[in-house]
Amino acid sequence: MDLLFNIQVWDSTIRLATPLLLACLAGLFSERSGIFDIGLEGKMLAAAFMSAAVAYTSGSVWVGLLAGIGASLALSLLHGLASITFRGNQLISGVAINFLAAGLTVVVAQSWFAQGGRTPQLAGAARFEQIELPFASAVADVPFIGPIYADLISGHTILVYFALLCVPATWWLLYRTRFGLRLRAVGENPAAVDTAGVSVIGLRFSAVMICGVLCGIAGAYLATGLQAGFTKDMTAGRGYIALAALIFAKWRPWYALSATILFGYLQAIALRPDLIESSFGFEIQGQLLDALPFIMTVVILAGFVGKAIPPRAGGEPYVKER
Amino acid sequence: MEKMPQWADVVLVPLVSLLLASIISAFVILAIGESPWAALKLMVNGALGSSYGWGYTLYYATNFMFTGLAVAVAFHARMFNIGGEGQAILGGLGVALVCLYIPWPHWSLALIGATLGAALFGAAWALIPAFLQAKRGSHIVITTIMFNFIAAALLNYLLVNQLKAPGMEPATPKFAQATHLPSFQDMFSFGDTVLFRGTPANVAFFVAVLACIAVWVLIWKTRLGYEIRAFGHSESAAKYAGISPTKIIVVSMLISGGLAGMMAVNNVMGEAERLVLNAVEGAGFIGIAVALMGRSHPFGVFLAAILFGFLYQGGAELALWTSIPREMIVVIQALVIMFTGALDNMVRAPLEKAFIAFSKSHAKAEG
User: Fold this and answer.
1) Within a domain: residue B339?
2) Is A91 part of the contact surface with chain B (CB cutoff 8 Å)?
3) pLDDT per residue over B119-144, tens digit each?
4) How many domains are contained in chain A?
5) Is A321 within a domain?
6) B164 has a chain A CB within 8 A of its CB
7) Nearest C-alpha in B relative to A233
8) How distant is the Cα of A139 from the closest Cα of chain B, in angstroms?
9) How many domains does chain B have?
């Protein structure tokens, strides 16, 4: 079972799961407040481009990160405007945002850098550095624990650790604070929240904005952490995989962690066909691994393995009673 | 409550949305240092100024008619079929199998066979999402998105393994000569005047027009169409009238998937004459914009499809002659979807107010 005990595979699992996890938690906030968001992909893509472009021009990855979050927030605002203020169709708005990002990033990248829709390669301070945790090199030689600490836990960018911290933070915010209680309530029964004198629109907008910030970080990680620069369509369906993970996780933070690690693991082993063959004794088609997150989500949706029940008021614009 | 006249709802609202989308696109073009007016002239000349331009415009329009009708039929049953892309991929598979493994004597028979194969495969790909929606309540939008990805992976697998022609490229062998569909060049060139030279527009355009008429008859002239519309307006009322929700959801999605699949007759059989990776090129998604713009009416879909065909061919010309990349069209498409779909209320409310104010002042003046 080389696949299960290979440190490299788990290392790249963590790297690949990070953008999925951030986007999945982003979607969790939005959908828990009753706003469906299939525009995660577009927001990540816009953030990936802006962060890479600004990090390149300013030379600072932190300024790039802020710009990426800004781009993602702008699209979130548009989504909020369409689906909360004007009570439009949330799904259609999400589709439009995905196309808007797919088109605009290439048009603007071509205009700014003239490299066929890419940004120049990032280097040095324009990228997130890998962080060496204390004593990583010292314990590297200790059997078993050493490599796990030195190679698997240590040596990621700060955004990876931030994403992992977001899981307990999200849990605490949703289940242990007044804001979280109201946020969950507004996704189940907005009329009750309104009756209690709390603004439905305010709550939903704040959820959509949190979603924007997290998508922005996810996109910035893609372009400045995982890779060194923006390339056309670099999200490559990750926003949709995150959406699948959200359903897989039944809209819960800790399940979101395990679902995104599972999907990240599938992406990681797809990169190592040699290990798959030595573990199973036969080849597994890469296309099957690509499709597996989606197939598993359909099975979950079908309700054969534990039913996934979305927030009850999801997708419905709230109309105040008169 | 007073309403605005129907013509305003059907014509004015989409046109205002289109205008808003164009204005924003013009600003984007201005911002990247090109002239919007010159860009528009180039697009009109390139897409509509010659039979060559029309040959491409109508070819793209044929694709968008099929996918637009697919989304429109589902909209009538108040379902959002976002899986046109995957259904069109599977339609391509159906066309390829029919053309590769059946020795057709004549293109007309091959066209019928391929249309059936495409519709069958497209419909089959919509069946599972439809069934899960009807029986399990899984959201059709999510399942059809998942099926788009599964379809892409499936086609990738088949083209790299089972169906692959000798050589490096993941594509099927070329279809037999007998399945070659007459192109517009074959049909409309007389003597020395060659029209539509080298363009991919072909006889499938007329299949698309027939499909528009058939959908119109289906939705407004048949019992099934009535049931679909009734279900779309109110599920509870339809149930009360004895209409089975399961039947309507499954049947309308099968029709929708079949229409999306039929697009393959145009792009796979008519143009490429073999099945390649990524043959659909996003046409399934453009169907969403086309159906929204055309207000889910077959005639509206017909016009909107030609508009988007114009945008696509015009966009290709822009990419060729200016520094505006092809993706500009994706931006325009996104804006059209945004304004006609999600921001519909924003466009509609001021128009409605204006009409009501106008009719009131009119009534006063007369009274």
Assistant:
1) no
2) yes
3) 999 999 999 999 998 888 788 888 99
4) 1
5) no
6) no
7) B327
8) 43
9) 1
